[in-house]
Write a structure and sequence with these properties.
By secondary structure, the protein is an alpha/beta fold. Among the domains are: about 90 residues, Beta-grasp domain (Ubiquitin-like (UB roll)), CATH 3.10.20.30; about 160 residues, Domain of unknown function (DUF4445) (Nucleotidyltransferase, domain 5); about 70 residues, no CATH class. It contains 13 helices and 23 strands. β1 and β2 form a beta hairpin. About 0% of the residues have low confidence.
Length: about 500
């Protein structure tokens, strides 16, 4: 039998086997993001540890200075506990991340999923963040709440989390996200001073809903990428271990379109008015994030695709990237004297850069010619606001992500035979898109220059659509119709996408 040891984690004493990686213990204390899935590539799972630990690995020596190592800083994914030790790290949820919960609802006929004297909740389970709203039967917003997705402890992207699920962590991933959703629901009730929600709608991408329901993700990991279920189901709260609710409280999971075009896309389409009888305009809806979903409405038909943009726009995969937390650079401009002028969230000392700041910074470096159209960075690294800088590898990550989003959009137009000149509006949804400077996005080629003056920001459209489903039960049939009507355009081995992808790599 393996030796049992004690690890004190943020003041909590845990018992584990000797040789356990510190990253395996982090979820017990609220988790800490492992953007690279625990492979030692990103260096962002830093903790402070002392006691009986394995020696620093080569990955740790790449990412940590001698001074940091001497002070006990370690990478949780690399260091293992050999005997009794103490580990500490900050709780990301105690930092006020800028998580978008806003997004106005269009007029709708009220027919709530709950009683006249009760309340209901809508939840958006994003890959990076969670957002929720509480409403009464009159459609009044009673409370909002948000937090980071604790599954980031298994990786920043859905691929890392699916790998973890297949490696035996499916139960832990499910417990993690269920606990976070349950906490949000309890927080909503406490803020509003109401009883528990009597009905809940939970939207999210296909993988997030698989992990929430502990559905086997194996079919999603290989061709033909056929999802085990596409949802459009109502489950009792007990099936999802939502202890803050009555066990029989109905929880509706909206339908998905395909394996990687999820319910969040469907509810965003609902909020954007896609598929309505009088919808004759050619419009695009784009949710820019770790998983970039784009929908095209053209001459009565609907098309959708998903591009694996990666987590760069969420701050992961960037050397000094981070979420929208205090200390993150979120705006960058070129000052009249040609230097860079940066804004830091909270007015704090800069410690990193978030997605909106990253796009601004790249656009500014292009303007000052410190970066050329091929993506070559004159100085590597280039300071933005010391000590924050961008590296050549960061620029490449942005190129890969922005070309994927842009190429997916143009591939949809090609599939539908729709000239870009016919597009009357480009609707940008999601948290990152809401903070994006459209001019900077068009300057770096994330968005088509031709559509820069036709962009309209929707806010959290996925959550808005989930709220509509909560407050108007007949819209469930509308969502099912949207999911059924939308034609999924696969980008795998698509020659148009391949060509556009390479072309859009240039700035």
């Amino acid at each position: 039998m393996a030796e049992r040891i004690s690890v004190t984690l943020n003041g909590r004493v845990l018992s584990c086997e000797a040789g356990t990686r510190l990253s395996a213990l982090l979820p017990a204390a609220g988790g800490r993001p492992l953007p690279c899935g625990g492979h030692g590539h990103c260096g962002k799972c830093r903790v402070t540890a002392e006691g009986a630990l394995t020696p620093p690995t080569a990955a740790e020596r790449r990412h940590l200075t001698e001074a940091e190592l001497a002070a006990g800083v370690r990478l949780a994914c690399q260091a293992a506990a050999l005997g009794d030790c103490t580990v500490s790290f900050g709780d990301a949820d105690t930092m006020r991340a800028q998580i978008l919960t806003g997004g106005a609802l269009p007029p709708l006929t009220l027919a709530p999923r709950f009683g006249a004297d009760g309340c209901g909740a809508a939840v958006d389970v994003g890959t990076t963040t969670l957002a929720a709203r509480l409403y009464d039967a009159a459609g009044r917003l009673l409370a909002e709440a948000s937090r980071l997705n604790p599954q980031s402890a298994w990786g920043a992207d859905v691929v890392s989390r699916m790998e973890a699920a297949l490696a035996g962590q499916a139960g832990a991933l499910a417990a993690s996200i269920r606990g976070a959703v349950d906490g949000l629901l309890a927080e909503l009730s406490a803020k509003a001073g109401t009883g528990a929600p009597q009905a809940v709608v939970v939207t999210g991408n296909t993988v997030m809903l698989h992990l929430l329901t502990e559905t086997d993700v194996e079919p999603l990991t290989h061709a033909p990428f056929a999802a085990a279920r596409l949802f459009g189901e109502t489950l009792p709260a007990r099936a999802l271990s939502l202890a803050s609710l009555d066990p029989e409280t109905p929880v509706f999971l909206p339908p998905c379109i395909a394996s990687f075009v999820g319910a969040d896309t469907v509810t965003a389409m609902l909020a954007a008015g896609f598929g309505e009888a009088d919808d004759t305009e050619t419009r695009l809806l784009c949710d820019i994030g770790t998983n970039g979903e784009t929908v095209l409405s053209h001459r009565g038909r609907l098309y959708a695709c998903s591009t694996a943009a990666g987590p760069a726009f969420e701050g992961a995969g960037i050397s000094m990237g981070m979420g929208g937390l205090p200390g993150a650079i979120d705006r960058v401009r070129v000052a009249p004297d040609g230097t860079l002028d940066a804004h830091v969230i909270g007015g704090a000392a800069p410690v990193g850069i978030c997605g909106s700041g990253l796009i601004d910074a790249v656009a500014a470096l292009l303007e000052t010619e410190a970066l050329d159209e091929t993506g070559y960075l004159e100085d590597d690294p280039t300071p933005i606001l010391p000590p924050v800088s961008l590296t050549q590898a960061d620029i490449r990550a942005v190129q890969l992500a922005k070309s994927a989003i842009h190429a997916g959009l143009r591939t949809l137009l090609s599939a539908a035979g729709a000239p870009i000149g016919e597009v009357r509006a480009l609707l940008v949804a999601g948290g990152f898109g809401s903070y994006l400077d459209v001019r900077a996005g068009a300057r770096i080629g994330l968005l088509p220059q031709e559509l820069a003056d036709r962009v309209r920001v929707l806010g959290n459209a996925a959550l808005a659509g989930a709220s509509m489903l909560l407050l108007s039960r007949p819209l469930e049939a509308v969502c099912r119709t949207l999911a059924h009507r939308t034609e999924h355009v696969s980008l795998a081995a698509n020659p148009v996408f391949s060509e556009e992808y390479m072309e859009r790599m240039l700035f």
